[in-house]
Amino acid sequence: GENVEQHPSTLSVQEGDSAVIKCTYSDSASNYFPWYKQELGKRPQLIIDIRSNVGEKKDQRIAVTLNKTAKHFSLHITETQPEDSAVYFCAAMEGGGADGLTFGKGTHLIIQP
Amino acid sequence: ETGVTQTPRHLVMGMTNKKSLKCEQHLGHNAMYWYKQSAKKPLELMFVYSLEERVENNSVPSRFSPECPNSSHLFLHLHTLQPEDSALYLCASSQDPLARAYEQYFGPGTRLTVT
Q1: Does B104 contact A at CB distance below 8 Å?
Q2: For an interface test with B, which of A23, A26, A38, A43 has the most B Cβ atoms less than 10 Å from its Cβ?
Q3: pLDDT tens digits, A38-67
């Protein structure tokens, strides 16, 4: 089965700086890689996703990069703001059928004012 | 947000009790999922239903029993649970995995405490 590793477990950055969270996956058949943001006491919410036929995707201050050869993908947040503080989860899924997501352990992002 | 709802939001039960968690999605999706979220562990997939057929059971103990009577409703029946089963149970749905519409929408979760 799929195994997803996520680093770091905690990341503290100054407001306005950039944050990068990295994930690796084990199953080369995985072809869908979403990132979820979970604020304290709330449900995970999708913030960006990427499919294996694309190397990079951007949405305003958020970007995701995918290296299929190395089996790793990263989340980049620029110009961080206090509301970016949350736990971020990466995930991977093999899309041949109705498969669930395999999640990383999460990164607690702290934005220092 | 009312796309995916879960009841109850909080549940305390003894190890000999029987209870059920309910999930309902109002998004017209065809696939539904149960995940378990424990402290300091990744979200763990428990069950997948696609078009009301169970597709995957990730070696979940038999004290957890899912039911999907139709594409909008998903239940998780609980009996003789253990304290280590205490966790946040999240339901999710997606449009149509077979059509590569993968985005999963999560419900608010049920916080379960087993005493």
Answers
A1: yes
A2: A43
A3: 998 899 999 999 988 889 999 999 999 999
